[in-house]
Amino acid sequence: MKRAERQYALVDLLRGARRPWSAARLAAEFGVSARTIERDLRSLQLAGVPIYAEQGAAGGYSILREYTLPPLNLSAPESLAVLAGLALLESSPYQAAARRARAKIAAVMQEEHRGAVHEMLGMIQVIDAVAPTDDAVPLGLLSDVIAARRLVRLTYLGENEDGGPDLSTSTVRDVETMGLLRAGDAWLLAGWCRLRDAIRGFRIERITRLEILGEVPEPRDPALLEADLARWPTRRLA
């Protein structure tokens, strides 16, 4: 059983349980170690599922009695579309949030749709044209960078003849972050590059170091970014 499937099953089991389940008992039920179960429970708690621990000989893990999951009433194709879309964010700066959202959606999916949806998801595969380098900045950090709106200093790899990252060349840039771009198969951090004194887009897989500086720069005129993007067929997500 995959990790996500096990977590969905954990939620279903605890929702229907009349008494708390210990980590050891849950581990035996799912055929994994107690440490694995505890990691799953922590992940679910971070995703917003109100799982709590009761102490004592008869203690264990439970879900709050007052907790009810919202009735989304999604059809099978709608559930597939939402889960597939969130899965595509695995290589984005919102990777962690997308995983938590997938767990929530899967937990409230109608039981009669669950098997068909997971079967169809298993038939969808993604080939990433450019894999991140081993030294790439963790994706989750970039969403914090965008929210902070502070000046960032990044080390950025050049481009080789095949269009991939050139590990032998790099520059250090101070960048005023302005947003994120999705260009073909790549995510880019968009901002005002002080080295080039212009708008630039930085492919995430080429950023090997990123430091959030203390300076909070004055916001640039949004028209600068709009003018730069006017060269491409773009659309907003909201």
Shape: elongated
The CATH level-2 architecture of the largest domain is identified as Roll
Strand arrangement in the largest pleated sheet: 6-5-4-3-7
CATH class of the largest domain: Mainly Beta
Helical content class: 25-40%
Label the structural class.
alpha+beta
Order of helices and strands: HHHEEHHHHEEEEEH
Output the CATH topology of the largest domain. Answer: SH3 type barrels
Q: Number of helical segments?
A: 8
Mean pLDDT: 82
Q: Give the termini distance in whole angstroms.
A: 36 Å
Largest sheet: number of strands, sense, barrel closure: 5 strands, antiparallel
Q: How large is the share of residues in beta strands?
A: 15-25%
Count of discrete domains:
3
Report on the structure:
This protein folds into 3 domains: 3-63, Arc Repressor Mutant, subunit A (Orthogonal Bundle), CATH 1.10.10.10; 76-122, no CATH class; 139-229, Roll (SH3 type barrels), CATH 2.30.30. With 238 residues, the chain is α+β, with helices and mostly antiparallel strands. It contains 8 helices and 7 strands. Helices cover 38% and strands 24% of the residues. It has a 5-stranded antiparallel sheet, with helices on both faces. Strands 1-2 form a two-stranded antiparallel ribbon. Helix 1 (3-16) crosses helix 5 (95-107), helix 2 crosses helix 3 (34-46) and helix 4 packs across helix 6. Strand 5 and strand 6 (198-203) form a beta hairpin.
